[in-house]
Amino acid sequence: MAINIGSTSTPTTGLLTSMGVGSGLDVATLVSKLVAAKKAPQQNQITKQQTTANTQLSALGQVSAALSALQSAMASLTDGSAFTARQVNSSDSTVLSASNTGTAVNGSYNIVVTQMASALKASSGAFASSSTQVGTGTLTVAVGSQSMSLTIDSTNGSLASIRDAINNASTNPGVSATIVTGTDGAHLVLSGTRTGAANGFSVSSSGGDGKLAALKYDPAASSGNGLTVINAAKDAQYSIDGLAGSNAGNTVSTAIDGLTLNLVKLGSSTVSVSSDTTKATSALTNLVSTYNSFVGIYQNLSKYDATTGTAGALLGDATLNSINSTLSRIVGGTANGATLSTIGISLQLDGTLLVDSSKLQTALSDGGKQAGALFGGTNGFAAQLNTPLASWGGTSGILATRSTSINQQLSDLANQQTTLNSRMDSLTARYQAQFSALDTLMSKLNSTSTYLQQQFDALNNSAKK
Questions:
Q1: Are residues 310 and 247 in the same domain?
Q2: What is the pLDDT of residues 65-110, one digit of tens each?
């Protein structure tokens, strides 16, 4: 009787192949998915915290930059330079130019230049060449109460050596030396380095062979000088509205309050001074612009969009709300008994500032006095704004402290990420070993199953025959 065992072989093979075991097992994919599932909860938590921290850090950076810009915009308003700017014009700039170096008073000044300041320049007689020996002894050069004494001997007694000794002396009182060679020979030319009658020099000699007297110069002597004057030391001479004045140099800074005159040549010119509202207008407009920029950043970071369900990075943040509240209170308040609206700057319902250009120009027409008073002093707007701005910004301000704290949080999260990655690497290695061993076992079982199947098939074929 034939024995039919074919019904036994089919379920056995189906049981093994349905498990996907043996050499066909995808260990890498299986391990990857198991590790990913294990890692996901912790990874999601770290990623979420990192995203939140980076978003807040970026937001604080925007706030810090806006406040820094606002503080910079306050500079010329704080020191008052924006309100003291003046336009200074010279009717003939070839005669003189003028500039505002202080708080010049508006007006005009007729200035007549009758003499330019000059430095003393004197030349020696002619020598055969620059290497010609002049003499020996002590050469003394003096300017006012300052002087230097040079020891001249056979080693440094040439015209060139004396030039170098004068120029290189550490005690030089203000005289330079050069050699000018003409058709008659070489001349030692001495020049004062400063203009003005009081800055003229004298040269005397003593001892030695007495030949250094060829370089003698005494401004009080009528004869006997070895040097010949090329240019005399003179003060600048001028008059301002008929009032005579003089100055050692051609740059005059003490004649008219707040003005510096640069004399160019003889002649007359009228200098006019008038208020320059351009700088004040620019400074105040820039202040409004930078303030409005902060308000825009504040509104964007603290908003909530009900339609999309998205919130600003610093929604409900106490620090940001306090900053906005403080600034709004200051610009909407009073300083030295007045408000910003008195010069044409008003606070709007949306928290921004608005400039009325016409009203601002009218307010500045007094030379900036009203606006300057509004921002100046210990109770002015400048002081009121600068104090909190300084406490919020800078390396030790509250915003920097917040940023440091967030950066520390990000550093901690980076450490957590490293630890998690290390644990998952270890888990991956363990799963790889376990499933590789299982794969090997299943491969062996599969080989056994194949062998048994072949034997059953052989028996079945034999029985059929």
A1: no
A2: 999 999 999 999 999 989 988 899 999 999 999 998 877 888 999 9
Question: Is residue 359 located within the same domain as residue 465?
Answer: yes
Q: What angle do CA 160, 161, 165 make, to 5 degrees?
A: 120
Domain extent at residue 388:
10-85+276-465
| Residues with Cβ within 8 Å of residue 291, at least 6 apart in sequence | 70, 73, 327, 331, 352, 353
Looking at the 3D structure of the chain, how many domains does it have? 3
Tell me how many degrees the CA angle 239-241-245 measures, rounded to the nearest 5.
25
313 shares a domain with 449: yes
Residues 373 and 287 in one domain: yes
Q: Is the pTM of this model over 0.70?
A: no
| Within-domain flag for 1 | no
Instruction: Give the list of residues 6+ apart from residue 463 with CB closer than 8 angstroms, or none.
Output: 2, 3, 4, 5
Per-position DSSP letters for 416-460, written without gaps between them: HHHHHHHHHHHHHHHHHHHHHHHHHHHHHHHHHHHHHHHHHHHHH
- Tens-digit pLDDT profile for residues 426-463: 998 998 888 777 777 777 777 777 777 877 877 888 77
